[in-house]
């Protein structure tokens, strides 16, 4: 028999509708909206009693309890075993009961704007959850329970008190996470493992305390939106220019550098560093870990001893954005490279050796917000 959806409006509910309503044997998916009632407990009339239209809890697939005054999670909801969508945002919940894990059919859950400080351990049993919004709570740590949600695709965690993202976030790579928003927290750094989330299309890191962005962000090749505004970022990793699908980059209210010192005092390079610049790279396995100087006219390499260079890159022919590059030596320049090409080492083309530029970004970048 064909299933249908039915919306329940509490304001129009009365005994006549209850008597003339759908037969309890009909296969109807029920969507119940009890939002904006400003109640402290869930009304029982529609759910309890022989004549109650929703006494068959298994038919309820959607429930909206947003914008009420719930202090405790209504345990009655834990009996709705086939519930797929639950919105209990804009309440005053300080915790979730262990029985919350009985809602194993949930695919969409909004807990936005409550008083939650953590998620229960049993939360990881919601294996079908695809979209989760826990923004606007009091979370101080990234909930590790989320790393076990195999179907999670969209995660909003903005407006909390989170100070760091664990390196274990790389586990979300297996989940094909597409949207991650952690703006409005207290982040001071982002782990390199963020680059493992290869399916991300949108990453929100705005309104934090970030001073830098890991170079691994260049591995997020499917990224279309990157929000970095309202941080303390001075320079960006040059790999951002290689994100061909990036359409929107928000950088406003960051102390992006306008003046910088060209001369940087460096410690003398070690003998191993010097040897790496003489011995052919294919002869020693250790040399495979070397980094190439970004100067297109230089063949120098380095391991740790390098010179930082801030290069302003033109995005979309309109904005100049500072990107951080590394040279093998503070004396290296296009006029006098520290280690020039030789006839035996010039097989590689200039295109392969050129420094990161805005060429990649110009094709698709649509918005760069600096002010």
From TrEMBL:
Keyword flag Repeat: yes
Q: Which GO terms describe its cellular component?
A: cytoplasm
Q: Name one Pfam family in it.
A: LRR_14
Which Gene3D superfamilies does the record cross-reference, listed alphabetically? Answer: Ribonuclease Inhibitor (3.80.10.10)
**Entries under InterPro entries matching the protein:** Leu-rich_rpt, Leu-rich_rpt_typical-subtyp, LRR_dom_sf, LRR_domain-containing, LRR_R13L4/SHOC2-like
Q: Which SMART domains does the annotation name?
A: LRR_BAC, LRR_SD22, LRR_TYP
State the residue spans of region: Disordered.
1-22, 345-371
Occurrences of domain Disease resistance R13L4/SHOC-2-like LRR (ranges): 176-275
- Basic and acidic residues bias spans: 1-19
Sorted alphabetically, which keywords does the UniProt record give?
Answer: Leucine-rich repeat, Repeat
Q: What is this protein called?
A: Leucine-rich repeat-containing protein 58
- Species of provenance: Meloidogyne javanica
């Amino acid at each position: 028999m064909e299933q249908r959806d039915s919306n329940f409006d509490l304001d129009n509910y009365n005994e006549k509708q209850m008597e003339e309503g759908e037969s309890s044997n009909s296969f109807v998916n029920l969507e119940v909206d009890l939002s904006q009632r400003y109640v402290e407990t869930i009304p029982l009339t529609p759910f309890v009693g022989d004549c109650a239209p929703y006494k068959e809890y298994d038919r309820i697939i959607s429930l909206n309890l947003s914008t009420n005054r719930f202090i405790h999670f209504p345990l009655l909801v834990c009996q709705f075993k086939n519930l797929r969508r639950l919105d209990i945002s804009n309440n005053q919940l300080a915790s979730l009961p262990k029985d919350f894990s009985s809602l194993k059919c949930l695919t969409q859950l909004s807990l936005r704007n409550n008083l939650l400080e953590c998620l229960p351990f049993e939360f990881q049993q919601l294996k079908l959850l695809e979209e989760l919004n826990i923004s606007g709570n009091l979370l101080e740590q990234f909930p590790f329970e989320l790393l076990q949600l195999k179907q999670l695709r969209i995660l909003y965690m903005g407006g909390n008190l989170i100070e760091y993202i664990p390196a274990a976030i790389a586990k979300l790579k297996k989940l094909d996470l597409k949207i991650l928003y952690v703006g409005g927290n207290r982040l001071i750094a982002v782990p390199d493992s963020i680059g493992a989330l290869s399916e991300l299309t949108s990453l929100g890191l705005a309104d934090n305390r970030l001073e830098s962005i890991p170079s691994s962000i260049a591995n997020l090749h499917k990224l279309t939106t990157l929000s970095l505004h309202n941080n303390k970022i001075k320079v960006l990793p040059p790999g951002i220019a290689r994100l061909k699908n990036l359409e929107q980059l928000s950088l406003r209210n960051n102390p992006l550098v306008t003046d910088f010192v060209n001369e940087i005092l460096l410690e003398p390079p070690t003998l191993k560093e010097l040897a790496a610049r003489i011995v052919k790279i294919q002869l020693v396995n250790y040399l495979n870990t070397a980094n190439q100087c970004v100067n297109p006219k230089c063949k120098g390499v380095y391991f740790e001893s390098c010179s930082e260079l801030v290069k302003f890159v033109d995005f979309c022919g309109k904005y100049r954005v500072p990107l951080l590059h590394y040279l093998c030596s503070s004396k290296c320049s296009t006029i006098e490279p520290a280690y020039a090409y030789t006839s035996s080492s010039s097989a590689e083309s200039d295109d392969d050796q050129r420094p990161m530029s805005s060429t990649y970004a110009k094709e698709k970048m649509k918005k760069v917000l600096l002010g």
